[in-house]
């Protein structure tokens, strides 16, 4: 919903433990005051990442990816967000 917080999670397992990078529409997400990325390791081989956008706007609609990589492999998962404004 527009104006609310949206949260995405990504978890990756590998050895060595993968790093996770977030992208929107193919562009790496770097620092911005309206989104935050939190990461925490789980055991020796898993990384969990949470990306939050707060508040969401129409500009946040798009294709998001989380990319996990280590020196042996790269893997990613993608998803699309769409917003529709209802007027009366």
Task: Report the CATH architecture.
Answer: Sandwich
Helix-strand pattern: EEEEEEE
- Unreliable stretches covering 5 or more consecutive residues: none
Give the number of DSSP strands. 7
What is the CATH T-level topology?
Immunoglobulin-like
Task: Name the CATH superfamily classification.
Answer: Immunoglobulins
Based on helices, strands and strand pairing, what is the structural class? mainly beta
Number of helices: 0
Strand order of the largest sheet: 3-2-6-7
- CATH structural class: Mainly Beta
Major sheet attributes: 4 strands, antiparallel
Average pLDDT taken over every residue: 90
Distance between the amino and carboxyl termini:
17 Å
State Rg: 14 Å
Shape: elongated
Our count of domains comes out at 1
Q: Can you tell me about this structure?
A:
A hairpin with a 4-residue loop joins strand 6 and strand 7 (about 75-80). This protein has a single domain, classed as Immunoglobulins (Immunoglobulin-like), CATH 2.60.40. A 4-stranded antiparallel beta sheet has the order 3-2-6-7, with no helix packed on it. The chain has a 3-stranded antiparallel beta sheet with strand order 1-5-4, with no helix packed on it. The chain has no helices and 7 strands. It is elongated. It has about 90 residues and is mostly beta strands. The model has no long low-confidence stretch (mean pLDDT about 90).
Task: Give the gist of this structure.
With 88 residues, this protein is mainly beta. Helices cover 0% and strands 55% of the residues.
């Amino acid at each position: 919903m527009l104006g609310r917080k949206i949260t995405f999670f990504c978890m990756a397992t590998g050895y060595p433990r993968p790093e996770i990078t977030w992208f929107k529409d193919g562009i790496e997400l770097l620092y911005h005051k309206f989104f935050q990325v939190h990461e925490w390791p789980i055991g020796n081989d898993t990384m969990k990442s949470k990306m939050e956008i707060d508040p969401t706007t129409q500009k946040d609609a798009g294709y998001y990816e989380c990319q996990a990589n280590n020196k042996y492999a790269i893997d990613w998962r993608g998803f699309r967000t769409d917003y529709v404004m209802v007027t009366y």
